[in-house]
Amino acid sequence: MSEEGKNRVYLVGAGPGDPGLMTARALELIAMADVIYYDRLIPPTALHGARDGAELVYVGKQPGVPSVPQEEIIERLIESGKEGLNVVRLKGGDPYLFGRGAEEAEGLRAAGVDFEVVPGITAGIAATAYAGIPVTHRDDASAVAFVTGHEDPSKPETALDWPALAAFPGTLVFYMGVKRLAQNAAALIEGGRPADQPAAAIQQGTTPNQRVVTGTLATIADIVAEKEIKAPALVVVGEVASYRESLKWFEDRPLHGRKVVVTRARAQASGFAKRLRLLGADVVELPAIRIEPLIESAAVENAIAEIDDYDLICLTSPNGASLLFEALARRRLDARALAGAQVAVIGPGTARALAEHGIRADLIPERFVAESLVEQLEKVDVESKRVLIARAEEARDVLPEALRERGAEVDVLPVYRTVRASPKQRDLAAAMEADWFTFTSASTVRNLAEALPDGLPDGARVISIGPVTSEAAREAGFEIAAEAKRHDLDGLLEALIGEI
Fold first, then answer.
1. Residue 131 Ramachandran class (φ > 0 left, ψ -120 to 50 alpha, else beta)
2. Which of 286, 284, 259, 255 lies closest to 459 in space, CA to CA?
3. Number of domains the chain contains
4. What is the pLDDT of residues 299-310, one digit of tens each?
5. 307 is in which domain, residue-wise?
6. pLDDT tens per residue, range 73-126
7. How would you classify the pairing of strands 480-483 and 342-345?
8. Any residues with CB less than 8 A from the CB of 154 and at least 6 apart, and which?
9. Do both 225 and 309 map to the same domain?
10. Are residues 131 and 246 both part of a single domain?
């Protein structure tokens, strides 16, 4: 049952395509939904926040393809609402701006089902801004009109007053206007709109696949056909379209137009994927592994019970650091439990994870591999000292073996294991169109190689986080384009940008 009222359906706008333009309210409702009815043009990561067990129902419409009739969508919303579920109807853009949300709201009201409308940022202001076109300007446009470029074909006649639109003193933004662009442009010119007025078409605005063409009202239809601009697209008519070249910014980002595959576990991938998207990349999240915690094991329980006895604690990954503290918390312990030990880590990411729990690492090697930590620990007296290494279940034994050779009493504590994830077929298909594959561990390489038995797509290039990962990639038959000089995500990103 809804926390905010029984039988409530939320008509939610998901924005124009860039996940960063989704509202906080939209994300909140997606996270609490029992069932989500979603459209085709929602952002690619919009459903990642849905809870486990939520029912995800696709009801999108696509030109030329059979789709769920609008009447059936409304009936499904009513049925789910009357069951007392948290129901989200997720629509691209804004529900009430050419989104047929009003029809759904009318159907819900007639059936006695409460609803809430959550506005979304519409493409008319977002895609234009991303294209460098201000829909209003102090010098050139004091008004803007949003117009459907494709009316309901069942109407006996057009509801648009073309002479009035032609005379409109401002910017015209046409939604769904590519198919009838030539006819619409002719109607505007016939109505008195200047044939040489600037115009632009924006395909898949705010997404990494955004394409923009410009011309005049008289030429834009031919340019759109020549450049093969396809739906979804907006058409802008007005003097403001002339600002495109001077104000464009979105396509100037370093990774714009590049499709990059991220193979990390999904829980870890989001931050790295977000950074890639901010640089313009079209990101395919293809988790080759998932993290399975082992902190309920007897070995972990015993180690935590004796945590005060350790002289040195080594953490080899952010996962190891986070899960060690989760294990401490299960016994009502915190950072104070490590007060008597030195703490050594591999990599700044692990150091940051440690710092989040209030502890600054005593030792961080310059190179982010086990061999470098072994070298750093040569300055530390470990003879007859107890050492705890919290790490993955399957990992190289370079560190524990080196410490044992120097007389340390070493306990290797697996706090998690990495297991193969099963990528979704649509994600695998998207990956086969990628330009770049990024790998952050040997396990991501091996597991993706199993998921792609025919190898990487032709022309795809590989960026590796470090030498161990690179070795695994070469064993899998992948050629390395670049290896990060710093073996962390910052280094991986630098290596990728350096190859563009």
1. alpha
2. 259
3. 4
4. 999 999 999 999
5. 294-417
6. 999 999 999 998 999 999 999 999 999 999 999 999 999 999 999 999 999 999
7. unpaired
8. none
9. no
10. yes
* Residue that finishes a domain, picked among 73, 96, 121: 121
What is the residue type of 55? E
Has residue 215 been placed in a domain?
Answer: yes
Q: What is the pLDDT of residue 433?
A: 92
Assess whether 33 and 129 both reside in one domain.
no
Residues 305 and 374 in one domain: yes
Rounded to whole angstroms, the Cα distance separating 223 from 213 reads: 7
Rounded to whole angstroms, the Cα distance separating 154 from 70 reads 14
Q: Is 3 inside a domain boundary?
A: no
Tokens of 178: 């590519």
> Are 216 and 188 a contacting pair, CB within 8 Å?
no
Give the pLDDT score at 156: 54
Please identify every residue annotated as catalytic. Answer: 39, 61
pLDDT at 25: 97
- Which residue(s) pair with 461 in the sheet? 436
User: Residue 5 has what pLDDT?
Assistant: 45
CATH of the domain at 314: 3.40.50.10090
| Cα 489 from Cα 228, distance rounded (Å) | 37
- 243 and 133 co-located in one domain: yes
- Report yes or no on 163 lying in a domain: yes
What's residue 4's pLDDT? 46
Domain assignment present for 2: no
Q: How far is CA 100 from CA 91, 92, 112, 135, 147, in A?
A: 9, 11, 19, 24, 14
CATH number of the structural domain spanning residue 221: 3.30.950.10
User: Are 428 and 281 part of one and the same domain?
Assistant: yes
Parts of the chain with a pLDDT under 70: 1-7, 62-65, 151-158, 267, 269, 367-368
Question: Using omega within 30 degrees of 0 as the cis cutoff, is the peptide bond preceding 232 cis?
Answer: yes
Q: ∠ CA(431), CA(432), CA(436), 5° rounding? A: 65
Residues 426 and 479 in one domain: yes
Same domain, 26 and 41: yes
| Contact between residue 236 and residue 202 where contact means Cβ atoms under 8 Å apart | yes
